[in-house]
Amino acid sequence: MQPWSPSVENDLRHLLNEWDPIGVADEVPDEYDCMLAPMLQRLRGGADETQIGTFLRNEVEQHFGLDPLGARPEAMASRVIAWWTALEVAHGNSA
User: Which pTM value belongs to this model?
Assistant: First the structure.
């Protein structure tokens, strides 16, 4: 399990801003910070790609009020899980 650290949060923030499902990350770089703690909690709890995808789909649809299809939350979930797995491996932990 990774410690809660600014670098982990910043890395996840960067991923979310690259994804940018509502298209405002250039003007509002903290727009997706509301997803940081819940997503890190899920990842630390062992959430898989499907669970992260469901979380992202719900956020896009319910929180931001958008059609999640165009946001491709499942593709983003795959990126998040790949990042998390690499982080775990780099720190000598299992994902």
Answer: 0.86
